[in-house]
Amino acid sequence: MDISRSDQRILHLMAQGGWIEIHRDERRKIEKALCFSRDGWLYPGFDLELFRRLKRLRAISSKEGKPYRITERGLRLVRSELDNR
Length: 85
Known about the structure:
InterPro entries: YjhX_toxin (IPR018654). The protein contains three helices and four strands. It has helices at 5-15, 48-56, 72-77; strands at residues 19-24, 30-36, 60-61, 69-70. The strands form two sheets. It has a two-stranded antiparallel ribbon. Strand 1 and strand 2 (30-36) form a beta hairpin.
């Protein structure tokens, strides 16, 4: 399955140890999603649409209320790159 370039970037970041945190409003709806690198830096090109697309592909998941991490399926979707960018 082919995935977009933006999906690839996020999945590479997460494969290296990154995570996604979500923030909910008072009605428990997802208000915003933030993607962090393994060093704790915020990734600027991430939005709710991209989050929902990765979740729909089952490339990311959350367990026991912890931040979202890459799944085995997500690792298979990521194509390897020489410089890992």
